[in-house]
Design brief:
By secondary structure, this protein is mostly helical. It has a domain of 88 residues. Helix content is 84%, strand content 0%. It has 5 helices and no strands. Helix 2 crosses helix 5 and helix 3 runs antiparallel to helix 4. It is flat. The N and C termini lie far apart (39 Å). The N terminus is likely disordered.
């Protein structure tokens, strides 16, 4: 689960870098940075998963709903961890136990959500593309991390000049 936190932090950092004005070709003119990231993600997934128009029409509403629910759970977990970090020196054992239990419950909730949406994905996509979805999610995380590193390096080089 630590990987989710690292990826979330990296995505937030990437968003900050994009908003800070990192120079890049304008693939999606007229869109703000978050809309561009979303359009980039849709293009990446659609291409890598080789989605047909019909599959896309069925897949994206389900996937977007899943992502929203998943992000909500991840945000709850992040808030819990922030609270612990901020208050750990004043929390008693009972409060720490409660927070630990909540953290595990959120992880279970996220796993149950993945199981629920796995069944829904199987209803809207061929099984080969469902498995390709999971692979594509990992490829996309790697792609974003690589972009983040490149943009950060470009920003550092720009400051050195």
């Amino acid at each position: 689960m630590k990987t989710h936190h690292i990826v979330t932090l990296m995505l937030l950092t990437l968003t900050g870098i994009l908003r800070a004005g990192a120079q890049q070709p304008d693939e999606f003119p007229g869109m703000d940075h978050m809309d561009r990231l979303n359009a980039q993600k849709i293009a990446f997934f659609t291409n890598r998963m080789q989605l047909t128009t019909e599959e896309s029409e069925k897949f994206w509403p389900v996937y977007n709903e899943y992502q929203k629910k998943r992000m909500d759970i991840q945000e709850q977990r992040r808030q819990l961890q922030v609270k612990y970090t901020r208050e750990q020196s004043v929390l008693n054992d009972a409060e720490i136990l409660q927070m630990a239990d909540q953290l595990i419950e959120l992880q279970v909730e996220e796993t149950e959500l993945a199981r629920e949406y796995h069944e829904q994905f199987k209803q809207v996509l061929p099984i080969r593309k469902v498995l390709r979805l999971y692979h594509t999610e990992n490829l996309y995380k790697t792609f974003l991390l690589r972009q983040l590193r490149e943009r950060a390096a470009n920003i550092r080089q720009g400051r050195r000049r």
